[in-house]
Amino acid sequence: MLDRLSFPQPWLSLTLFATWQFLSDGISGGSVVLGIVLAWGIPQLTRGFWPDRPAVIRGWRAPAYALRVLWDIIVASVEVAKLILSPRQPRPMFICYPLELDHPLAISILVSTISLTPGTVGADVSDDNKLILIHSLDAEDEQEVIDTIRARYERPLLEMFR
Amino acid sequence: MILIALYITIAMVTLAALLNVYRVIKGPDAPDRVLALDTLYVNAIALIVLLGITLQTRMYLESALLIAVMGFVGTVAMAKYLKRGSVIE
Amino acid sequence: MSTFAEYAVSALLLVGGAFTLIGAIGLARLPDFYTRLHGPTKATTVGVGAIVVSSVIYFSTLGRGIGIEEVLITAFLFMTAPVSANFLAKAAMHLEVKTTENTRGQTWDQ
């Protein structure tokens, strides 16, 4: 029992604790106790779902990436909005994107980014984590889309997960 | 001025919800319907937030948060059911 | 409430409403499932995000404090939208949903 009294993911526990304090009406003895119980219990219960931690995450690169993605999301929605309102038919295309990343967390961040940014939705990751299937709403050329994603999103992620 | 913008926005979001309902009814496939329901709950969150601003109360925000969590779980469960034929394996 | 905040809240509300509506129009009029996936994941998420941010500004200028609920809702929407889109795309590929005629490239199903 005593060996279970640990916090395997300290950052997750801290986030859970802080979120619980904000959600309850003001910090009191009860909310602190319940917050500690949640911060201990949830990581224990979800232990099996967490992938192995990456060797090094260079966390200081994350804010720049997040800002770039946020900006691209705004640009992307304007582009999709224009396309939806214009009368011409879109030219959809499925694209196989060869991955350079190999860490599962990095891949899932990349797929989420692709889904939120210009004209593309990440549809599937192959079982051996080598390919992503992307659906593009309005693409001229397969190689152009691959190059954009490679330069704009995958390279920074490669730098971050080394 | 905020009140006028609020009414226009409520009208637009309501229209959007009606279009989603049209897609839920029309289909043609099951994933289309699940996608439309997914969009519908996101629009419901927007409507609840707008209602909160109109009535100048923050009470409804907690229900919006609950809808966000439950809606996501529901969408994932339905998508998983469509793919595998069962939710929990 | 200052005039600037009033303008900001109104503008964010209108932009958010417009994006939500455009997302729904995309869902209603685009030709096949995979193209319809684009409207809700981008336009609707940004639209509802803008509406929620306008609520943050509105209540904080009224002096009711910055709400953690709004921040949580926005963060949650932006995290979940790509995940549910991905799950639905996988389900659609498994069910071999029809694509429009001018779609290039192939789906796969493992």
TrEMBL record, chain A:
Pfam families per UniProt: MNHE
Keyword terms, alphabetized: Cell membrane, Membrane, Transmembrane, Transmembrane helix
Keyword Cell membrane belongs to the record: yes
Top-level taxon of the source organism: Bacteria
Subcellular location: Cell membrane
UniProt xrefs under InterPro entries: Cation_antiport_E (IPR002758)
Coiled-coil regions listed in the entry: none
Membrane topology category: Multi-pass membrane protein
GO molecular function: monoatomic cation transmembrane transporter activity
One Gene Ontology cellular component annotation held by this UniProt entry: plasma membrane
Alphabetical list of PANTHER family matching this protein: NA(+)/H(+) ANTIPORTER SUBUNIT E1 (PTHR34584), NA(+)_H(+) ANTIPORTER SUBUNIT E1 (PTHR34584:SF1)
Record-stated family: Belongs to the CPA3 antiporters (TC 2.A.63) subunit E family.
Stated name of the protein: Cation antiporter
Lineage: Bacteria, Pseudomonadati, Pseudomonadota, Gammaproteobacteria, Pseudomonadales
TrEMBL record, chain B:
Cellular compartments annotated: Cell membrane
Nucleotidyltransferase recorded as keyword: no
Gene Ontology molecular function, alphabetical: sodium:proton antiporter activity
Entry GO CC: plasma membrane
Transmembrane spans: 6-22, 34-53, 59-82
InterPro entries named in the record: MrpF/PhaF-like
Cell membrane among keywords: yes
One Pfam family in the UniProt entry: MrpF_PhaF
Protein name in the entry: Multiple resistance and pH regulation protein F
Source organism per UniProt: Marinobacter manganoxydans MnI7-9
Automatic annotation (TrEMBL), chain C:
Residue ranges the record marks as coiled coil: none
Highest taxon listed in the record's lineage: Bacteria
This protein's UniProt keywords: Membrane, Transmembrane, Transmembrane helix
Pfam families in UniProt: PhaG_MnhG_YufB
Gene Ontology molecular function, alphabetical: sodium:proton antiporter activity
This protein's record includes keyword Membrane: yes
Transmembrane residue ranges: 6-28, 40-59, 71-89
Keyword Transmembrane helix tagged: yes
Name of the molecule in the record: Putative monovalent cation/H+ antiporter subunit G
Species per Swiss-Prot/TrEMBL record: Marinobacter manganoxydans MnI7-9
